[in-house]
Amino acid sequence: MNDEQEKVQDSHVEDAQLVRAFKKSHDIASFDALVIKYKNRVFNICFRFLGEREEANDCAQETFLKVYRALSGFREEAAFSTWLYRIAMNTCKNRISSREYRRKRMTVNPGGSENGEDRGFEIEDTRNSPVLLFERSEKARIVREAIASLDARHRAVVILRDIEGFSYEEIARIEGLNVGTVKSRIARAREALKEKLKDVI
Amino acid sequence: MDCAQIRKVLSEYLDGMLDMETRARVDQHLKSCPGCAAHLASLKATADFLRSMPQVAPTDAFLDEVHRRIDNAGTGWHGIDFRKRTAFALAGIAVVFIAIFTVSRAIYTRSEKLAMVGRQPELSRPETSVIGHLKSESKTEIRASGQKPVVAPEKKTEKMLTLKEKISEPNREGKNITEQQPTTPSANGGEKPGPVIAGKKPAGLPAKEEQPQLITAMEVGSKPAAQISAACAPADEQTAHETPVGLLAYKRASEVQKALPAGIEEDKELERIIVMIPVTLQSENEIRMADRQVAEVAGIASDAEKAENKQVRVSQIATEKRIMDATASNIAAAGGKILSEKQQQDTEILKAVIAEIPAENYPAFLKTQKKISMFELQTQTTRGQQQQKNLRLRIEFKLSR
Fold first, then answer.
1. Is B11 in Cβ contact with A131 (below 8 Å)?
2. Scanning B50, B260, B318, B372, which has its CA 20 to 30 A from the CA of A126?
3. Is residue A123 part of a domain?
C-alpha cells in the first residue's frame, strides 16, 4: 500500500469510528466532526454542479441533513465518504431537475447575477484574493456555463474526476456505475467541455 | 487503429486507464498523427484547467446552519426520536435521581391513594451523586412535599430493582436493612437473574397498621397511579416485586428525621420518608453497595457499613482521579485544552469536564478516550460562528459496567 492509499484507509477507519460513535450513543460531536471534515468538499462539489453559491450551500446542508437522518441506519457496506458523496450527487441531481423545471415555468435565469450570488457568503481567502477574483472573472462564468451545459450524468462524472480528482473506481462506487460506463462518460464530458472551453484555455 | 478509434480512448489514455497493449498502440499513433496529438493536448489542457479551479468553501456558519435545519426538520420521527433518546441517554447515563417522598397517614387508605397519586407534583430532581447529597436535597424535598401524601412518578424508563427495607420500631436494636426483595430480571432483559439479596426478617414487626408498606417507584407513563395503588396494597406486594422498577428504601419518619441534618423543621404529620434511588443495578456488589448507602442515609447503617461506604467513596475518588488524569492527558494529546471541571456538589467526585479540542483531532481523541473503559464519554458540542474548527466537549463521567 502506498502512502496515499494508507491515508485514504486511515481516513476511512477514522470515519467508521465516528459513524459508530454516532450510531451507538448519538454522539453529536462525531457527527459534527464528520461535517467539519467533509463540508468543504461537499460544498465544492455542489458548487461546481450547480454553479451558484446559495444553491450549493443549501444543497450541501441538505446533504448533511440527509446524512444525519440516515446515519443510524447506515450499514457501512460502502465507505462513509462514498455514501456521503453519493447523497450529495443525488441531492444535486434532484436539485437541477427541479430547477430546470422552475426555469421552464418561471423563466428565471438560474445563473443569477455574477456579483449578487457571492453576496453574503465567505470563502476561505480574503476579499481581494486571487480565488475570489477568479470566481468573479469571465472565465469562471464560462466554466460554469460549460459545466451547466452538460446533462447531470456527465456533469457528475467530470466534476468528480477532473475537479475533485476521484479515481474511476471511486466514481463508479459513488455513482453506482461500472467502471466502463464511467470511462465513456468522462470521455464524452471532456470532449464536450473541450469545445466549450477552448476560448479560455 | 484509426484516428476515430484513437480519439475515443484518449481520455482514458490521459488518465492511464488503458491496458499496456492499447496504450502502446496509441503511443505509436500519436507519434505519427499531429491531429490526434493536438486533440490529446487539448483534452489534457481541459482536464488540467478544470483541476486548477480553486476550491471554494461554504460559510463559517455552515455547521450551525446544518444543525438549525436538523432542529427545524426535527418534526419527523427521526428528530423526535433522536432528541428523546438523547435526553434519556443523558438522564440515564449522567444522572441518578434521588427523591424523598413524604407520605402521610392518608395514604394508608387505598381509595385516597388512588385519588391523590395522579395530581401530586413530581419531586424527583436530577442529581448525579448516588447518595452523598441526599441530606442537602432532602431539605428542599421535605418542604416541597409538605404534609401531603406524595408519590413522585419516576421519569426514567430504565428498569430498576426494588429493595424493600422494613424498619422496625424506632428504638429497636440492630438497625439494619432487614429484608430485601428478590427481584426478577430487569434492565438486562433477563440475561442474568435479578440479584436476590439475602435478608432476614425483622423479629417483632410492629402491629400491622403501623407496618410500613411498600410503594414501588414506577416508570413514568406507565399508569403510575394504578401501579402505585397496586403496589401499596399489601396483598399485591408480590406483584409489585415481580416488576421491580426502583430501588426503594423507607423507614419511619421519626427515624429519618433524626438522621436529617438539623434545621429541617419537624413535620409532625410526617409518617414515613421514602428514599428512592433509581439506579441500574447489575451486580450483587452494586446492590449491596446501594443497600449500604441507603442504610447510611436512613441512619441505620452499622459502623462496619459506614466504613465500607467510606472505603467505596475513597476508591471512587481515586478512580475518578485516575480517569481525570487520563482524560486530561488525552485532551492535551489532541491539542485541546480543559476549560473547566465540574465536580459533584459537596464531593470530590468529578462530574464533568468541559474541554475544547480541534475538530480534526476529535476522532483520535475519541479513540483514546474510549479506552478508559470504566467510564462513558458523553460529548456535546457547542457550536458557534467562531468555533467551527474547535469542538467544545462536555465530558461527563459515570460509572459504567
1. no
2. B50
3. no
